[in-house]
Amino acid sequence: MDCMVCGTPLQLMNGINMATSLIQGGEVDLYILDHAEQNQQYFDALRNAGIFHSVYFLHSKQMTGGNNANPLVRYLKASWYLMRGKTLLQQIPSLPVYDRFFIPTPDVPSQLLYYAAKKKNPSVCLYMFEEGTFAYNYFEHEFGKVKKLFLRILFQSDIMHDYQGAYVYHPGLLNNVKNLPIYQLQPISKHNKVLVDFYLALSGYDPASHGRIKNEVLFFDQPFLFTEINQQQYELYDVIRSILPQDCLQVKLHPRTSNHPYEKVLPFQVSSEIMEMNESFEDKTLISVFSTACLSPKMLFDEEPVVVLLYKLVDLHLMTNINENTFQIAYQIRSMYRDQSKVKIPETLEDLKRILMEIKKDRSDV
Predict the structure, then answer these.
(1) How many Å apart are CA 229 and CA 132, to the nearest integer?
(2) How far apart are CA 174 and CA 20, in angstroms?
(3) pTM for this entry
(4) Helix, strand or coil for residue 248?
(5) Residue 284 — very low, low, confident or very high, per pLDDT cuts 50/70/90?
(6) Contacts of 58 (CB under 8 A, 6+ apart)
(7) Cβ–Cβ contacts within 10 Å for residue 238, how many?
(8) Which end of the chain has fewer CB atoms within 10 angstroms, the N or the C?
């Protein structure tokens, strides 16, 4: 029997795709973590959908330590919850014996589940499956010193040494520093009406009532741990708003965002990939600091919107788990574009203003 852990709508979308295309005929259990608001409704829909053998909904958000920018505070908070008798595992009546274990990220709840499965079956094989751009630098990832110590105390092991392979949409883009077997996930086809309708029903997104995205430019908000980076993101948005016509610009809020200064936001909360599945993004402009949502139209559906990534204009060096290698995937995806000039990565604020003026002119010429 196999097992899969998912914590976001995109992970669930990829997990369902993987379960229905690559693990056909096999029994797969699904563990849904409560890391996104919509996950409860996904659980309600999936537990009787016949795709997975068993579906579990696990309360685990506290085990990540919350969104405090101080890593020591986060790990102390997480430790407090973990020391209360491993509350995550207590939510599972009886953990089955698994042969293969699939996780998209090495977060603490996923590691807890994996090491519990490994106790039951020391031969269980661990695999990564795609969750977005993070997947392609997954095996280069280095935990910070505090987190390394935290995980070493908690598990007496390093999960990055246990992987047996990975499943991604574009194997050629993955930096396979560990020389592991890499398997290709079958792309999600917009033309597969049965699958598209299932995803739409699962997410609760109804194009007829919510309407299609009419705005030509979407800004994807990202909730960063550091106030300084969030403030810089808002300031960049103000620059964008000052140049582009207001009737063509709208903001897609991140599910974790509560307080924000944006004026025009999409009136519904659904994962960007579900929106992208439902209509063409080829003629849109997508802007963010560095959101997977800007790159997923090409990665998932081979569509080529204009993409503007702002990560060089904010102080991402404050985040210890991010470095220049993190962003190589943007250049790799740009190399896949038929028109590579559509992926823009401004080096300075003046670069951004020039790019925005070009976008404004192109829109007015249409």
Answers:
(1) 22
(2) 23
(3) 0.80
(4) helix
(5) very high
(6) 31, 32, 33, 34, 88, 91, 92, 109
(7) 11
(8) C
